[in-house]
Amino acid sequence: MRGIRKGVLGVALLATVVMGAGASAGAVGPVPVPAAATEAATAPVPVVGAEADVAHHGHVSLWDGRIGVWLVSENLGPSDLSQATVRLAFSVPMAGGQELPPACLWSSDRVVSCRTGELRVTGGIGELGLDLRTAGRPDELTVDITTAWRDGASDRHPGNDRHRVLVLATGDPYVF
After folding, report:
1. pLDDT of residue 50
2. Judgement on whether residues 31 and 108 belong to the same structural domain of the protein
3. Is residue 47 part of a domain?
4. Mind listing the pLDDT tens digit for each residue in 27-55?
5. Stretch 144-162: mean pLDDT, rounded?
6. Which residues, in sequence order, are CB contacts of 19 under 8 Å at separation 6+?
């Protein structure tokens, strides 16, 4: 894949240099682009290795200085995953000294990273529930949910594993 990207980048740079040289020399009209460059630029990007489509869905609630997160991770395929990691980044710091589930760890006072466990294509899901205390009592916060690692597999549809959720301190579940 890097070879294709380098090739496309090289052709783009060559076209820029040729067009720039032509313009400074007083040339008029379009500069012809070799057919190989056009084909390389429009060819689909090949997938190297395993491919899996990780998706995260759930809801987040904020009330009285507490935040609850319920998250389901699934693999829409086409390959099974032995493991993935979901990252939850909060816009406000969490209170210190809080225990997390065994599959999770604190990356900072605002970030929790959790293993999903095995995500098979045929319906294997990973569930996560967090009940955390915030530092203070914010009226609102945001949570960024992303896949930090997917067992080395590529994902052509990363949009369903990236969410930003604005959560108001109403106790209502904000769905993603």
Report:
1. 87
2. no
3. no
4. 343 434 445 544 444 444 444 568 999 99
5. 91
6. 31
